[in-house]
Amino acid sequence: MPDDASQPVITRFAPSPTGALHVGGARTALYNWAFAKGRGGPGSRFLLRIEDTDRARSSDDSTRAILRDLRWLGLDWDEGPVCLDDWRSYDASFDPDDPANTLDPRGVGPFYQSKRLDLYNEQFQKLLDAGLAYEDEAGGGALRFKMPDRDITVIDEVLGEVTVPAGQTEDFVIRKGESGGLMPTYHFAVVVDDALMGVTHVIRGQEHLSNAPKHVALYDALGFDKPTYAHIPLIFNPDGSKMSKRVKAKVARKAAIDAGLNDNGLPSAGIPNDELRAFLSKDNDDLTVARAIARQLRLALPEIDVADFRESGYLPTALLNYLALLGWNPGDDIETFDLAFLRDKFDLDRAGKSNAKFDREKLFRFNADAIAALDPAVFRDQLHEHFAARHPRFLDLMNDNAFAAFAEAYRPRARTLDEPAQLGGFFVADDGDIAYDNLDKNARKALTKNDGVGVTHLATFRDVLDQQCDPWTGAKAHELLQAYCDERGVGMGVVAQPIRVAVSGSTVTPGIDQTLDILGRDRTLARIDNLLAAHT
Ligand code: GLU
To answer: Which of 434, 416, 417 is nearest to 519 (CA)?
Structure first.
């Protein structure tokens, strides 16, 4: 909490655009957002700065993806690259280099470090003039900062005071040669930018704690006021390993080796054998190869980045709720909340000190609960959008009514927006691909019990459907089925189960009326005919 709650709080999220937005980065952004919006007085701001001094590894694509994923989570910022209303607008047509795409009300930009070289040069000169920096042996204009010969204390809101004794930190590089010319190092740029942008609180992951003494020494040497630091716990996998992108490579590698995928490359993905072998022998963790293996083996790679969770059908509300709890809690056993609650309640005095464990099961439950709480029409729209991006075949084969019935059928059981695609995959199979020769026990029983009376009824009822279900609706089909069964004094299941087996190859489908609504006349009848042909 700032000493005086009427003071402006200025926080920032400062990603390096060298890849997608990791969940750890998203959590850092979330806390900085909430702290500025909720704890600061008038004039508080949350800014977004792109730390792209590593020219070889930075890309506009990564910048766009980071902006998109922050907006998808519902975070907005006051200064930085323009904050668009719709996260989908950060597509290839968005040009981060266009000056029009900048939010800079106080004139403290630019917000890309690669565009701030003049500002850094002024500060380099200050240090050189004061004798606090010197040319590095490496030459070529590289500079080193002269660490002062005194203890350095970092005052951290979460961890308390951390003191590094004099002489423990070596002089470090503050300017280095890069392919594009001389660039400040991270340590230098982060200090100059936070100072010139007026950042009052630096909330970031504990991996940066060991950098903080260097930053403190630089602030003092440059004569800037230091911000308040808050280093938050790291996020680990439940087994204690780091939750890094390498996990994807590890999972793909193991699956490929188990499946004996090691001799022919992956021709369908354009991956030659030497590349595959290099990956399998741990020469690299190339994500392109990992993804190609996953596709080939129909394997789901563990989600690590925000975009992975979106693609797996998580809701942004569930993800941000879960992430906010990794290193902070609001007390009172409250676990379910939204951004507005986080903004109102987030404070550093409830931030944790120890490592956080990423519990996928718990996130999954959060997501299931968030989906269950959605208004039916909202669920349908979100499912539609997810399917348009990930499973367009469903939309090709289903008209609006069929898709609405599909959404309604799976709404009670969907725990992610992706699950209906797996559970209801039979709806979009080719009719000829429903396998009747390898049925599970329940499905076999539905066809064979009582001398196969179910199949006999199915053959008769098929013609009832064909002749009387017009116009075709699931409700009408259900009514006909009811009348058919009542007339003959047989239980509905006797006929309904074989219908399920015919249309899906199993007895697990939504209700008959919903199922036939979704599948439509032609495909229902074709599948019944296929089953009858296979069983007579
Ligand atoms: N660009 C740094 C990172 O992505 C920011 C570190 C900081 O917040 O100081 O880790």
So the answer is: 434
Q: What gap in Å lies between CA 85 and CA 366, rounded to an integer?
A: 26
* Chain Cα centroid distance, residue 348: 25
Q: Is the CB of 204 under 6 A from ligand 1?
A: yes
> pLDDT, tens digit, for every residue of 27-76?
999 999 999 999 999 999 999 999 999 999 999 999 999 999 999 999 99
245 SS3 class: coil
Nearest ligand 1 atom to alpha carbon 13? 8
- In the numeric block, which tokens belong to residue 334? 């409250």
| Omega before 471 within 30 of 0, i.e. cis | yes
Ligand 1 close to Cβ of residue 208 (< 6 A): yes
Q: Give the pLDDT confidence of 423-465 residue by residue, as tens digits.
A: 999 999 999 999 999 999 999 999 999 999 999 999 999 999 9
Distances (CA, A) of 154 to 52, 90, 159, 468: 26, 38, 10, 80
Decide which of 3.30.420.10, 3.10.50.40, 3.40.50.880, 3.40.50.620 is the CATH code for 116-232: 3.40.50.620
Domain layout of the chain by residue ranges: 116-232, 246-303, 374-428, 431-535
Collapse the DSSP code of 231 into the 3-class scheme (helix H, G, I; strand E, B; otherwise coil) and give the result. strand
Domains 116-232 and 431-535 share a fold: no
Ligand 1: residue of 46, 47, 70, 186 to mutate (most ligand atoms within 8 A of CB) is: 186
Contacts (Cβ under 8 Å, ≥6 apart) of 280:
253, 256, 257, 262
Options 1.10.10.350, 3.40.50.11260, 3.40.50.2300, 1.10.10.10; CATH of 431-535: 1.10.10.350
